[in-house]
Amino acid sequence: MPLLRATNNPRRLNEIRVRVIDDPNINAANAGGGEFQVTTGLLAKANDEQLRGVLAHEIAHDDLGHVARAQTLGTGLNIGVILLEQLIPGSSAVTPIAGALIANSYSRSEELEADRHGVEILRRAGYSKEVMIDTLTWLTRTSGGDSGGGFLSTHPGTEERINALRKLA
After folding, report:
1. Does residue 64 lie in a domain region?
2. Low-confidence ranges of the chain (pLDDT < 50)
3. Contact between residue 57 and residue 114 where contact means Cβ atoms under 8 Å apart
4. How far apart are CA 55 and CA 28, in angstroms?
């Protein structure tokens, strides 16, 4: 509740939906429009601070409108593929790769933005940036190493995310 009130665009409680997904993996997602998903694995393994860090990150995605922007980007990329195929027949064979690179770099920057905004939300709610850093460190330990990163990844590496947060004032 304190995290939801600390956003730039607070939602009423009746606008928030949290869906629990029966999955042993540690994961959470923002489906947009005030809908959040958490796995039973996250709920079973995370302590309160770790859950707070994960939720601050997902709430930040919602507050920043990332899902809506991703949907718009996806539509634009699909239209671009169709138009390019009309101009250069056969180009649709390579455009999905280019589209993936564009979309992934876009979502990687959004992940870093959601981390920063998640810290801002945590601070407004009375918590320190260490909650987010400790959560990401826990996720790295729990998953068995640095996750994300790489050429086609949608998330930057966890160490990259932690280092970016440490640089925040």
Report:
1. yes
2. 71-75, 77, 94-95, 97-106, 149-153
3. yes
4. 8
Position 155 scores a pLDDT of 59
Residues of the domain holding 153: 48-166
| Neighbour-count burial of 149, counting CB atoms closer than 10 A to its CB (0-12 exposed, 13-18 middle, 19+ buried) | middle
* C-beta of residue 55 within 8 angstroms of C-beta of residue 3: yes
Q: What is the pLDDT of residue 157?
A: 81
pLDDT value at residue 110: 86
Instruction: Give the tokens for residue 48.
Output: 């309160």
Q: Distance between CA atoms of 153 and 67, rounded to whole angstroms?
A: 17
- Backbone φ and ψ of 32, nearest 5°: 90, 160
State how many domains the chain has: 1
Dihedral of CA atoms 63, 43, 147, 94 in degrees, nearest 10, equals -60
pLDDT tens digits, one per residue of 122-148 = 999 999 999 999 999 999 898 765 555
